[in-house]
Amino acid sequence: MIAAGLNPPLPRSFWDTQSPQDDQQRDSSNNSDDDDDHAYLRWYLGSSYDADRVFAMPAPQRAELVVQAKVKLLANQAGRHRHAHVRARSPPGFWRADFPGTQEQERDREEARRIERGVVEERWREAMCEGGKWIFRDE
């Protein structure tokens, strides 16, 4: 990350990323903030980064992706347990003691599909970065 040129100063609060500045300085630094955001996204998405696709994203989706990239970078820089394994979550409805109804089973299946899709997206994102935790089988 530092070798890639991403060494942001660690703010006191993650959401308080900028110190108070004058409006003129904010206007001139807006372009540099865009460049920083693209650097974060280039690092986060790896070889799947496409500037045209990022520009085509709606602003809220792009902002959410930048936040995810910053959170991951911050966790990798400052996290004490960044290589520790996360305890596996229980499947949806596992701790329910009674028999589920048809609607509850369908909700549990839908939630399981959503969780599985999120895991696959995270693994794909890791596989697209150089030196990531996951790689494709054909590599």
Automatic annotation (TrEMBL):
It holds the Pfam family SAE2. It is found in: Nucleus. Residues 31-104 form the DNA endonuclease activator Ctp1 C-terminal domain. Residues 1-38, 78-112 are annotated as: Disordered. Residues 16-31 have a biased composition (Low complexity). One of its GO terms (biological process) is DNA repair. Keywords: DNA damage, Nucleus. The keyword Transit peptide does not apply. One of its GO terms (cellular component) is nucleus. InterPro entries: Ctp1_C. The keyword DNA damage applies. Residues 79-88 have a biased composition (Basic residues). This is Putative dna repair protein sae2 protein. It comes from Botryosphaeria parva (strain UCR-NP2).
